[in-house]
Specification:
The chain is of the alpha+beta class. It is built from four helices and four strands. α3 crosses α4. The termini are far apart.
Amino acid sequence: MIVFTLETSDFLELLNSQFRLNRYSNILENTMAENNNDVTTPRPEFRMQKMYIKDLSFENPNAPQIFTAQQKMDPGVEVNLQLNNKQIDNDHWEVALKITAKVSSKDENKVLFILEIEHGAVFMLKNIPTEHIQMLLGVDCPTLLFPFTRQIVSQVSVDGGYIPFLMEPVNFMALYQNAQKKKEEAKN
């Protein structure tokens, strides 16, 4: 028997992801229904085709002394996340998450480690209405990619001699909506 335990936040994230997928399904079905006059209307397709690491760096500047120091560690964490996308051809887009994490001890202000990763994926967006492309690239693509990026970051920190560095889940929908709101305010 296999039992899965989900934290409340993980369960809510799972529901939100399912809601977004259902919402896009409904949007795409409505778009297809509107275009149903043409029997040859192609069905929209959206999927991740390949994931890859574009760049990975782990710096452990105070090793091995940091591991032998008899001190209580109260680490401070600084994380920067950048989302990039570019069109490869008519149906394919690259979406890349670039994350820089700097973990230092608050007491002595010593850097424990610096981790940089650029994790990308190729997504196929075929027959998707143009008005939905930016939301797919800004919300759904990074939402699919982020858990894998998070796992790589966690494993690299363990391989560097530390406990797993678990990044908090990111609400890409909220980030996208904030960015859109700022664009609207900048226009006005």
